[in-house]
Amino acid sequence: AQKITQTQPGMFVQEKEAVTLDCTYDTSDPSYGLFWYKQPSSGEMIFLIYQGSYDQQNATEGRYSLNFQKARKSANLVISASQLGDSAMYFCAMRENAGNNRKLIWGLGTSLGVNP
Amino acid sequence: DTEVTQTPKHLVMGMTNKKSLKCEQHMGHRAMYWYKQKAKKPPELMFVYSYEKLSINESVPSRFSPECPNSSLLNLHLHALQPEDSALYLCASSQEFRQGAYNEKLFFGSGTQLSVL
């Protein structure tokens, strides 16, 4: 079973509008971290935002916020006031604390296009 | 600007060539990673070095040979590659790679786009 599911392979948003990218995860570990990365066509993987399983508040970083719903096991990324430069692939990823698995587990990504 | 520097940005090589990819970071991180990424797919972990020792090898073919000369440098030596090895190779670093460090952020370089002819 997929541990990280991103159900939107591709989507478009109008410039200056807000957009939500979906991410659901599956883990039985009480301690875990959730990450969002952006990858523009240039190739670099850019860290955007982090949410820990014990964090009481939703993470925010500038125009990025994470809608963390622990009971639903979802960690959706919200981008406010979209800009043309937000066009990129967006990956949700998770790291669990348990056992020997210290690796990042990646979703398949969402390709976001921003229309002028 | 990324604080992880990868060279070269692009590489074209024949199946009999030997080449190396280089990665450098000056953030004082003690964990460094090599990932392989095909177009429109998530990155696949290849190797992890922790404190300059190989910690994870994800059953990567021996035609890929990693090397960590010091805590700031990571190399990936390539020999007798196949066309299916053509991909974006990403280097990353993090503070540490240890049990319990599930909040460790990875910082990535811009990658080397490799084409094997």
Summarize the structure.
The complex is a heterodimer of chains A (116) and B (117). By secondary structure, chain A is mainly beta.
Explain what this protein looks like in three dimensions.
The complex is a heterodimer of chains A (116) and B (117). By secondary structure, chain A is an all-beta fold. Chain A is built from no helices and twelve strands. In chain A, a hairpin with a 6-residue loop joins β5 and β6. In chain B, the strands form two sheets. In chain B, strands 2, 4, 5, 6, 9, 10 and 11 form a seven-stranded mixed β-sheet that branches. A four-stranded antiparallel β-sheet of chain B has the order 1-3-8-7, with no helix packed on it. The mean pLDDT of chain B is 93. The A-B interface holds A 31-33, 35, 37, 42-47, 50, 52, 89, 91, 93, 95-97, 100, 102-104, 106-109, 111 and B 2, 40-43, 45, 48, 56, 88, 90, 92, 97-111, 113.
Helices and strands, with pairings:
The complex is a heterodimer of chains A (116) and B (117).
Chain A lengths: L3 E2 L4 E5 L4 E3 L2 E2 L6 E8 L6 E7 L7 E2 L2 E6 L4 E6 L8 E9 L8 E2 L3 E6 L1
Parallel strand pairs in A: 2-12
Antiparallel strand pairs in A: 1-4, 3-9, 5-6, 5-10, 7-8, 8-9, 10-11, 10-12
Chain B lengths: L3 E4 L2 E4 L4 E8 L5 E7 L6 E7 L2 E5 L6 E7 L2 E7 L7 E8 L12 E2 L3 E5 L1
Parallel strand pairs in B: 2-11
Antiparallel strand pairs in B: 1-3, 3-8, 4-5, 4-9, 5-6, 7-8, 9-10, 9-11
